Structures are given as structure tokens and as C-alpha cells.
Amino acid sequence: MTQETSQTNPIRAIALLSGGLDSMLAAKLILDQGIEVIGISFESPFFNADRARTAAKQLAIPLITWDITDELIKVLKNPKHGFGRFFNPCIDCHALMVKKALELLRSLQAQFIITGEVLYQRPKSQKMGGLMAVAKDSGAQDLILRPLSAKLLPPTKPEREGWVNRSLLLDIQGRSRQRQLDLAQTLGINDYPMPAGGCLLTDISVTRRLQKIFQYWKDDIDRPFLELAKVGRHFWTGSDLIVVARNEQESYSLRALMKVWDYKVELTDVPGPTTLVRSRGKLTEEVLELSALLTARYSKARTLPLVKVKAENYLFLHTQKLQVKPSALTETMERMNAEQL
Questions:
Q1: d(CA 93, CA 201)
Q2: Among the residues of 195-317, which ranges form H helices?
Q3: What's this model's pTM, rounded to 2 decimal places?
Q4: 266-314, pLDDT tens digit by residue?
Q5: Helix 90-104 crosses helix 128-138 at what angle (to 10 degrees)?
Q6: CA–CA separation, 307 and 286 (whole Å)
């Protein structure tokens, strides 16, 4: 039987709530044992709490959101357990999230943490070793309960203390989703997203861009730099980055993400995209010319013999006007060993 310490101090759990079906089911299993549940969801440039807000309303539980971008940058620079298939340090990231939840236990008068992790559902982070690493590295140890796979794992403190009835927990494992789908129907959970990558760190295009950014700019990374990885067309020549907006909204975004040392490149006589140029040292004439050619290429001026372009830098109060031949782009790209990501 589930026990409470007293009527004024009930058993309470913090649930890591992504908004996916597994995290909803885990929270619901604990709610149905008469335990209070508070959801917590985390945000960064690569994932947000939108789905968690919807899930929390359906479960009728309060939700805390927490931006962990600064801590995540440190993890991405040097993940203890390495990366998955892409730029996703899942074990380290999950440990960070559990650690943050652990920090709230006392203030929220909660006794333990629950997650929707399923044993062997993911090839690295949800193997037995991965789950144990999250518990250890987060400092949560046996205060972290995984209701969907609990019967396959060592009993945790909430189970041993009788706060949670272990016999009502489950033994789900593997990649099949059928048991979760059946359980959702039984528990009356009808509104949930289909399983898909909710984290952009598992997106191949974002991954390739981030790998370059961390290769050349590791010590200068902040949230706006990470946001930049999601915007525009990216071109690299050495450590120099050129980002060309794909539409008007991205042009606004690039202007907002620019550092004072960046160059803004735009056409002067024809509507076209905004281009951001970021260089480690003094911007060379070659890189400036390439950025101008790329700006012309992705505009209606790409078929003209000559296009006028203006480059501006606000830190050095420098403005430079250029004329480029859009037809010279391919040769210039090859000569400079530039690549698009």
C-alpha cells in the first residue's frame, strides 16, 4: 500500500515530463497510486517544453520549466559518456536533468524523482549501464524511479520505504511500443505525440553544423551561437562561417543573432537575403567576396552579370561596397575549399 508521512506532508514526486507518451505514462502510474506529482520540463535551443505543457494539462498536474542552456553547453564541450549517433550526449544530458530535479526536492517537499525511461529502448542511454550512470552522475542514486521498467531494475528507496507499491509498476523493455499504446488506452491517455526525435541534437543537419561550430569556436559558444545552428544556409571556409538567410523571417533572425564583430552582407539594388559572416581574425577580401557571391546567388539577382553588394561591420565602423559576378560562385567555392552544411 502507498503510505503518506501525514495528511499535511503527503508523498510527492517530481516527474521529468518531456510530453512524450512514456513520460506521461510514468507520471500517470504514480498519480494512480495516490501520490502527488509535479512535472518538470527543460528547455534549450534544441528542445522546448511545448509538448510537456500539453501533457501536464491532460494529466492535471503543475509544471515547472527550466532553461538549462548554460549547463548544456558545458556538457556538449566534454560529455563524460560521449555522444550517441549524432551530437547527442544523452546519458550526460539525462543526468543533468535529473540533477536539476534533485535540487528541487527539498523546496517542493518531494521525496523522489520519476522518469519515463524504458530499459533497452535506446541503444546506449537506456541500457542498464546507461540508466545506472544517470542515477550515479546526477547524485539521485536510488531516489530515481522508472515506473515503466521498475520490475526489471533494483528496488529503489520509494519502493523499499513503501511510498510506492512496486507490484503496480511495470516490466516493459525493448523498442516495441505496443505495451505503452495498450496502457495509454487503459489509463485514458488519448492525446499524445507520435514517437519522434524531439531533440534537434539528433538531427543530422544540425549535428554537422554544431560539430563545426564546436571545432572552431568552442570557447566562444553561447545561446545565440547555438541558435545560429538552426538558421539559414551554412557555408564554411576554414574557421570562417557564412550564414545566408533562406527567407525574410530568417533575415530578421540573423540580424538579431549577430555579434558586434560580425559582418552583415546585403544587396544594395535588388531585394535579397541577409548574410552573416563570422571570422576569427580580420576578415579577408576572399571571404568577403565569397559572402557577397552567396548573397547574390540566393536572390533574384543571381542571373545578372554584375550585382552590387554592401558589407557592414558595426564594431570597426567599416562599410565596404563590392560588385560581384554571380556566375563566379562555383569557381570561388572550389578555389577556397568552401563547404555547405
A1: 11
A2: 204-217, 223-228, 248-257, 285-297
A3: 0.90
A4: 999 999 999 999 998 888 999 999 999 999 999 999 999 999 999 999 8
A5: 40
A6: 17
339-340 β-sheet, strand order:
318-324, 307-313, 263-267, 275-278, 240-244, 233-237, 339-340
Q: Which residue has the cell 572552431?
A: 216
- Is the pLDDT at 5 greater than 60? The verdict is no
Q: 307-334, pLDDT tens digit by residue?
A: 999 999 988 888 999 999 999 999 999 9
Q: Are 80 and 94 in contact (CB under 8 A)?
A: no
* DSSP secondary structure string for all residues of 321-336: EEEE-GGGHHHHHHHT
Determine the Cα–Cα distance for residues 141 and 132; give it in Å rounded to an integer: 8
Task: From residue 15, give the alpha-carbon distance in Å to each of 63, 98, 170.
Answer: 9, 9, 17
Helices of type H across the chain? 21-31, 50-59, 69-77, 90-104, 128-138, 157-160, 178-187, 204-217, 223-228, 248-257, 285-297, 329-335
The predicted-structure confidence for 109-153, as pLDDT tens digits, reads as follows 999 999 999 999 988 888 999 999 999 999 999 999 999 999 999
Question: Rounded to a whole number, what is the largest CA-CA distance in the chain?
Answer: 81
- How far apart, in whole angstroms, are the C-alpha atoms of residue 26 and residue 144? 12
Distance (Å, whole) CA 179 – CA 341: 40
Locus of grid cell 555547405: 340
